[in-house]
């Protein structure tokens, strides 16, 4: 299909403004207020953006799981309105817990009926609720980016993951997020070198979502690119002998 010649310009201005506002790197209270206000339009806005991260992350996790996913306990960090939960549910995952900093977003997530538990938590400011090593997988889809969740949260994500459990993370590769992406990949690599986890996947995806401006667009395609990372926490359980 032909891609629009003028990147981003076909997006409704309201969508562009709301996306720009939350990525502006404003102070935390202001950012949470923006997310609260965005909650009612969020699902339709990301549909307009053709945002593929929830679908791609859920597919990566489903591929990695050795056991029946219905038994697995998953934590959806920065769960927003529940887009990732919908995708995970389609792949057979049923035990889903979610955390988010925005009360407005959590309210929408609750209305999906897909989560067993939802808690408010501002990642980077406070620890994740609950004890260590309780989740078979942890997802952070969309929140790891410039002006959002700091890269220093990775050890906290590892803390709540069971040994042998999976962590699925995403970030964008658009111009304004490249510094953050480099920083994130440096932290990911550091944890791998010290034996905290092993990398299973780093998948670069060209049509991640539609660009909201010409400057952000990848090579004039009207889209930005992104990446899905999948890690497994060490020690990895040995394969059972038949």
Would you kindly provide a brief summary of this structure?
The chain is 34% helix and 24% strand. By secondary structure, it is an alpha/beta fold.
**Terminal Cα separation, in Å?**
49 Å
Quickly count the helices. Answer: 7
What is the string of SSEs from the N terminus onward?
HHHEHEHEEHEHEE
Mean pLDDT: 88
C-alpha geometry = globular
Strand line-up of the largest beta sheet: 3-2-1-4-5-7-6
- The helix fraction, in percent, is 25-40%
The appropriate CATH architecture is: 3-Layer(aba) Sandwich
**Number of E strands:** 7
Largest sheet: 7 strands, mixed
Radius of gyration: 17 Å
Low-confidence stretches: 1-9
User: Number of domains in the coordinates?
Assistant: 1
Fraction of residues in β-strands:
15-25%
Organism: Mionectes macconnelli
Domain Methyltransferase: 75-165
Protein name: MET27 protein
InterPro entries: Methyltransf_25, SAM-dependent_MTases_sf
């Amino acid at each position: 299909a032909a891609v629009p010649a003028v990147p981003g310009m076909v997006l409704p201005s309201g969508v562009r403004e709301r996306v720009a506002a939350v990525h502006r790197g404003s102070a935390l209270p202001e950012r949470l207020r923006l997310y609260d206000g965005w909650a009612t339009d969020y699902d339709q806005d990301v549909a307009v953006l053709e945002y593929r991260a929830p679908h791609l992350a859920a597919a990566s996790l489903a591929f990695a799981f050795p056991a029946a996913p219905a038994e697995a306990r998953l934590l959806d960090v920065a769960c927003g309105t529940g887009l990732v939960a919908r995708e995970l549910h389609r792949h057979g995952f049923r035990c889903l817990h979610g955390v988010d900093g925005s009360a407005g977003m959590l309210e929408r997530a609750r209305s999906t009926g897909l989560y067993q538990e939802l808690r408010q938590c501002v990642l980077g400011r406070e620890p994740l609720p609950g004890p260590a090593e309780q989740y078979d997988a942890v997802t952070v889809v969309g929140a790891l980016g410039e002006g959002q969740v700091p890269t220093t949260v990775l050890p906290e994500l590892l803390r709540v993951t069971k040994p042998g459990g999976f962590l699925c993370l995403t970030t964008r590769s658009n111009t304004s997020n490249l510094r953050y992406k480099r920083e994130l990949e440096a932290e990911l690599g550091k944890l791998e070198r010290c034996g905290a986890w092993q990398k299973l996947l780093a998948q670069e995806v060209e049509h991640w979502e539609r660009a909201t401006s010409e400057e952000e667009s990848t090579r004039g395609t009207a889209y930005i690119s992104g990446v899905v990372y999948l890690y497994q926490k060490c020690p990895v359980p040995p394969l059972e002998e038949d």
